[in-house]
Specification:
Elements lengths: L4 E3 L4 H10 L3 E4 L5 H6 L7 E4 L9 E3 L3 E5 L4 H6 L1 H6 L1 H8 L4 H6 L2 H7 L6 H8 L2 E4 L3 E3 H4 E3 L2 E2 L7 E7 L4 E7 L6 E10 L2 E7 L6 E2 L1 H9 L24 H21 L1
Parallel strand pairs: 1-3, 2-3
Antiparallel strand pairs: 4-5, 5-10, 6-7, 6-10, 8-9, 11-12, 12-13, 13-14
């Protein structure tokens, strides 16, 4: 049994101080990323800082230009919110397909992003839409947030408070899920912008990434024919007991076509 302390702060300032004073402390939100890590003994925190009481991490705000989600927003809330479905239909579609009901009703968007698991869905949406991460210290552009396997630009003790998405209906997302866990095996998010295209790939590599070649192809001709001769190199892609790197390379092309079809259907 791991021996650790537990505290539920009442303010962002109190939470930040606890994290600063305890370098081995971990933030507890929905627990769907943290608890499995604790069970596998991959982390041994000295303190769990439960952020459920922090109002600054809650709330859904939608205006004419953006959708702002508190970091504590659960996946099921995104999936069921009719206003999000209207403003960002691809985001609601994505949330409905995350893992299993327990994960959707307990897991939070902030926890998913801070953990940055290769098999998580939200990193593709954040990077594919060019969202902004708001913390207790600064604003971080999506292109600067995801830095590597289970790694982000968040500094030690920095709290993720909100995510700001540009309001956009011309997006599509397709993931090929792991049949047991529901995690992303390979996924592609595509957003058509007025001045170009953003394409994010998740699951296929250690960290979500923008796909420059697909962006160039679709910016030139936003049409399925642009993908006819596309071939994803297998080098650098994940390989495990379930899926080889070569098969994941094929899945990138499959997911891209399906995501593009979703965009074109709007």
């Amino acid at each position: 049994m791991i021996d650790f302390g537990y505290v539920r702060p009442r303010s962002v300032a109190e939470a930040a101080k606890l994290l600063a004073d305890e370098p081995e402390a971990k933030v507890l939100a929905g627990g769907q990323s943290l608890i499995p890590i604790l069970k596998q003994r991959l982390a041994r925190p000295s303190l769990l800082v439960d952020v459920q009481a922090l109002d600054a991490m809650r709330g859904i705000e939608i205006d004419d230009s953006r959708v702002r989600l508190g970091a504590f927003t659960r996946h099921a809330e995104v999936a069921a919110n009719a206003r999000i479905a209207e403003a960002l239909p691809a985001l609601a579609h994505m949330a409905r397909g995350i893992a299993h009901p327990q994960v959707r009703h307990m897991g939070t968007i902030g926890g998913s992003l801070a953990h940055n698991d290769p098999g998580a869905d939200y990193p593709a949406a954040v990077l594919g839409l060019g969202a902004t991460i708001v913390t207790d210290r600064r604003r971080i552009a999506a292109d600067e947030f995801f830095t590597g396997l289970f790694d982000t630009a968040l500094a030690a003790g920095e709290l993720l408070l909100q995510i700001e998405f540009p309001r956009h209906r011309r997006s599509g997302y397709c993931k090929i899920p792991h049949p047991a866990s529901g995690l992303v095996n390979t996924g592609v998010w595509i957003t058509r912008l007025g001045d170009g295209v953003r394409v994010a790939v998740n699951g296929a590599s250690p960290c979500v990434f923008r796909h420059g070649e697909l962006e160039q192809r679709l910016a030139a001709h936003f049409d399925p024919a642009s993908l006819d001769d596309f071939q994803q190199p297998a080098q650098g892609l994940n390989a495990d007991m379930h899926t080889s790197a070569e098969y994941r390379a094929q899945l990138v092309a499959v997911a891209a076509r399906r995501a593009l079809s979703m965009v074109l259907s709007h």
